[in-house]
């Protein structure tokens, strides 16, 4: 590089380079929870009604939304699915969900936090050759840190619905992929968050699992535990006709890369 700043982590891991316009550093802008459900047998896109607490609003198109399915009870499971509007300014979760919003360092919304106190005026700000802020040390520890720990390429997980999670009999799910093929994380789930960008749900998920769900996840907790378990990709499409043998649901592979991150307070 000529003039500017380049930062590498351990083992030469790339972090920041002010000479590339593709660098975008992010910080945790919001950490909260939704409280409502999509009801009436459908998502908002399909005529279902939505409690106000299910909607995250005021998003920028560049924001990343991550979700965590906290245990409803020991040994329970939590579905995580949502729908973005056409402009990606709102995200509607189908069920109560913990979420984190990451904003890039140059986004103007950060000014509401880091420009209001003289104590927040100290730090390091890096701009690229286009004079765009690509790193601002003031946002790193505002709420907490966030680290991407794993990614799963698009199309790698086959999807499907699973008998023990839906209440349906096993014979109605024989054509769906095994749980192992859709599991991409095993361990402590407390601070593991899945990226919802690229998620899409139509029809929601009702008590009979009717509808259409794409790029969703299950946080499945071990028996007697509210902390440990597995995270699985859970994605299927439901047709309006039987494909034979009473099967009218078809597994759907993940339609975008899956990102798994860890929140660090």
Notes on the protein architecture:
With 265 residues, this protein is mainly β. The protein has one domain. The protein is built from three helices and 21 strands. The strands form six sheets. The chain has a six-stranded antiparallel beta sheet, with no helix packed on it. Strands 8, 15, 17, 18, 19 and 20 form a six-stranded antiparallel beta sheet that branches. Strands 6-10-9 form a three-stranded antiparallel beta sheet, with no helix packed on it. The longest helix has 4 residues, at 111-114.
Uncertain regions: pLDDT < 50 for 5+ in a row? Answer: 40-48, 164-175
- The helix-and-strand class reads mainly beta
Q: How far do the termini sit from each other?
A: 34 Å
Largest sheet: 6 strands, antiparallel
Q: Averaged pLDDT, please?
A: 76
DSSP E strands, number: 21
Sheet with most strands: strand arrangement: 3-11-7-16-21-14
Q: Kindly state the percentage of residues in helix.
A: under 10%
Strand residue content: 35-45%
The run of helices and strands is EEEEEEEEEEEHEEEHHEEEEEEE
Helix tally equals: 3
- Please tell me the total number of domains: 1
In short, what is this structure?
This protein has about 260 residues and is mostly beta strands. It has helices spanning about 110-115, 165, 180; strands at about 5-10, 15, 25-35, 40, 50, 55, 65-70, 75-80, 80-85, 90-95, 100-105, 125, 135, 145-150, 185-190, 190-195, 200, 210-220, 230-240, 250, 260-265.
């Amino acid at each position: 590089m000529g003039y500017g700043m380049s930062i590498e982590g351990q083992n030469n891991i790339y972090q920041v380079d002010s000479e590339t316009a593709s660098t975008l550093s992010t910080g945790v802008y919001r950490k909260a929870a939704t409280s409502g459900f999509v009801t009436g047998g459908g998502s908002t896109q399909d005529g279902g009604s939505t409690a106000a607490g299910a909607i995250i609003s005021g998003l920028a198109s560049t924001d990343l939304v991550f979700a965590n399915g906290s245990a409803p009870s020991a040994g329970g499971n939590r579905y995580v699915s949502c729908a973005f509007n056409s402009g990606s300014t709102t995200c509607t979760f189908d069920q109560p969900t913990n979420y984190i919003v990451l904003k890039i360092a140059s986004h103007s919304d950060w000014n509401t936090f880091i420009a209001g106190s003289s104590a927040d005026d100290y730090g390091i700000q890096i701009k690229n050759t286009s004079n765009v802020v690509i790193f601002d040390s003031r946002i790193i520890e505002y709420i907490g840190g966030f680290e991407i720990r794993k990614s799963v390429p698009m199309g790698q997980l086959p999807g499907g619905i699973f008998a023990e999670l839906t209440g349906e009999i096993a014979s109605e799910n024989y054509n769906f992929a095994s749980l192992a093929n859709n599991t991409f994380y095993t361990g402590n789930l407390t601070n593991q968050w899945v990226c919802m960008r690229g998620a899409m749900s139509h029809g929601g998920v009702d008590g009979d699992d009717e509808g259409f769900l794409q790029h969703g996840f299950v946080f499945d907790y071990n028996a007697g535990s509210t902390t440990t378990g597995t995270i699985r990709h859970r994605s299927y499409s439901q047709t309006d006709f039987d494909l034979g043998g009473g099967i009218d649901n078809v597994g759907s592979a993940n339609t975008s890369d899956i990102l798994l991150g860890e929140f660090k307070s």
